[in-house]
Amino acid sequence: MISRHRIGLILLGALVALGAPQAQAQSSWRVCRDVECLDQGWNDAQRRWWYTTTQGSRLLPLDWLVALEQPGDGQRAFLDRAYMEELGYIANPDPVNNPEGLPLGWVIDQDRSLSADLMCDTFPETCDALTMRKPWVGLTCSACHTNEITHQGRRLRIEGAPTLADFQRMEEDLLQSLKDTVADRTRFDRFARAVLGEDQSIDGRASLETQLGEQIAWQQALADKNAAPKVRYGHARLDAQGHILNKVALTVRDPDQITNVLADAPASYPHIWNTSQQEQLQWNGIATRMFKIRFLGESTELGALVRNTSEVIGVFAHIETDKFTVRRGYPSSARVRELVSLERQLESLQSPKWPEDMLGAIDWDLAARGREVFTRQIDGESCADCHSHMAPTDTTSPMATTMTPLADIGTDVFTTCNTFLHRSKPGQFGGQYVITEGARIDPVEDFTRMMLVNATIGAIWGKRGEVLGAILYEDDRPSGDRTESGLITEYLPGVTDEKKKADAQDCLTQDHTLLAYKARALNGIWATAPYLHNGSVPTLYDLLLPARMRNVATDLDAVLPEDAETRPEVFGVGSREFDPVKVGFVSDLEQNPFTFRARDEDGEPIPGNFNSGHDYGTAGLTEEDRRALLEYLKTL
């Protein structure tokens, strides 16, 4: 067992009270009016605050986004409610706290001070025009971690559940809209009149056009880095870790910098209730808890601050790392105070209980038999060995989590493998010391995850006037010895991409704490479809079926009969209509805007979309066992 070491306080700043969120203006409008809300421990005011509090994300200036039109020849607004809902973003018609009518989780961020002028080498005209000091729109936690389900005409809001948004298409459409605005003079005229208003002038319009060009160039650079030519994310998935690492790689402004790994491992958005009770976070456990400090009657978990700061860096925060070092701190738009308050509110979020009045009564006798299946030992293991029990209202007890090595769980490897292998040229990061690694970043090329730690710590240190301190440690999680079996004949059987096969072999035969996936308590699991870390299984019933796909083919593999019921390899995603029988969203192709495919049109498995793994005796379950186990999972 490798011991955990704690590295002492490295951030000593001015003493600032990191208070709880302030009360917002009162409004007669209520969240739970047109939509039904479950009792998850939050009141209406807390919900409104969660939906509209900035974390420092900056996508576009507010007046630009309001004036922007959708891509194509039409004149429909980009923020048109029907269009946003088509992309999977939930409406938030709150006239007091959201008068601009932004989708839920799309929030305004504004800094009128000199510190707002960030990345001026990338956006020189934008800085000169003082556009950086205007209100900007970005995303906050609730955009990706709030969902709604519908059933027989009723609509139910679930806080902390994974979104059904198509983030990839949103980014692509936004970039295309910006390009169309510049290319079409009539369209640009409408845009300029809306943004500049009475301040129209030849110079003002020329400046605005130049600023648009700066934003297009930046977003195109991000798009090029995040390219995933063989994998569409679709609704409910995002390669968040790939996007974050690529964003960090781009901030060094090295024209020759490279990324060896594409952002082609989309993952299902995780549900975030009980977040503060877990030791490892994210599907691969890359984010770890540190410990809490108590100040002025409030507690702050330092690991959460590091995790959330890295997240906002990836989701549109402005940050400058190319002129500074971690010791000096990196100027950024990250809102440390708000990040702390958002995390504190999240600590009180309860997991959702199955709503019997909407989705049907639970058969409690059948559920009791399902619990027996859940605890039954199959080949020396049971579901309960990895998935501990947690009461829905328990928001304080430590939650047991189990990290299972890739070779053991058998699921798609690339969410964790890509993060592990991602390398870049470090630019200004080169030679800087990374405290959690106990090493310096190689000045020629190194793992991008080391640069992410550097950028995150530097961003927090750059905001030292807003936080008491951050405490970091390196957590070397133990894992069993693994040896390569002589029975292994092929990695990623059926895949022809030799680099992907080599990457999979590399990750499946190494012993490293990052090369694992997390199992946690399953409370509220019914509300988190689609399933597996990469969203490759539509319902809980389908998860209890065996998969035909495998990460590794061996000489002794049993071949499933042709007529065996197996996990679907093609299904629809994006509908909010819930299927209470299979427990997940309705996945018929004709009822969904996006089609998930585990194989391409030639039948070749798609790395990143494997629906294999977590196959602990599912082939041996009877139909009665599956139905009983499914009923039990509804009760958690």
UniProtKB/TrEMBL annotation:
Family matches, as Pfam families: RoxA-like_Cyt-c (PF21419)
Molecular function GO terms recorded: peroxidase activity
Gene3D superfamilies in alphabetical order: Cytochrome c-like domain (1.10.760.10)
Protein name: Di-heme-cytochrome C peroxidase
Signal peptide: 1-25
Keyword Oxidoreductase: yes
Organism from which the protein derives: Ruegeria marisflavi
InterPro entries to which the protein is assigned, alphabetical: Cyt_c-like_dom, Cyt_c-like_dom_sf, CytoC_perox, Cytochrome_c_Peroxidase/MauG
Domain of life of the native organism: Bacteria
The keyword rRNA-binding appears for this protein: no
Region (Disordered): 599-618
Keyword field: Heme, Iron, Metal-binding, Oxidoreductase, Peroxidase, Signal
TM stretches of this protein: none
PROSITE patterns in alphabetical order: CYTC
